Amino acid sequence: xxxxxxxxxxxxxxxxxxxxxxxxxxxxxxxxxxxxxxxxxxxxxxxxxxxxxxxxxxxxxxxxxxxxxxxxxxxxxxxxxxxxxxxxxxxxxxxxxxxxxxxxxxxxxxxxxxxxxxxxxxxxxxxxxxxxxxxxxxxxxxx
Length: 143
Hints:
Elements: H1 8-16, E1 21-25, E2 34-37, E3 41-44, H2 60-67, E4 71-79, E5 86-93, E6 106-111, E7 119-120, E8 132-135, E9 138-141
C-alpha cells in the first residue's frame, strides 16, 4: 500500500480488530457494499474471486440486520479456487471470547485487496505501521 509492504492481518487488526459493525454503506452500480465500524473505519466487501464489487446484491438493510453489533474477532485466508487469489476471511461475533471456528461466528469472505480501501470516513489518517519498501531488489525497514 502506498509503495510499502504491510501485513494484511496486522494492518486490518490495528484498524478494525475487536471493533463492532455499526452501519453498512449500500452498494452502488460500480461500488461495493461497505461495512462501517464503530471507530469510523469503512471496509468495502469485494468479490473474493475477481476483486470487484460483489456479484450478488443483498440489500444493505438485510446485511445490517444480520451483522450490526458483531465485532471483528479474527482474520483468516482461504483459496478461492486452485489457481485463484486467496480470500480474506472476516470472523465476526457478538462474543469477545469467540473463536473463529465457533458455531455462532459469522465468516465473510472478501478479496484481500479490499484492505487497501480500508479508510476512515471520519477523515482521520490511519496510524503508521512498520513499513518495508523495496529498493534495488532488497527489502529494508524504514524508521
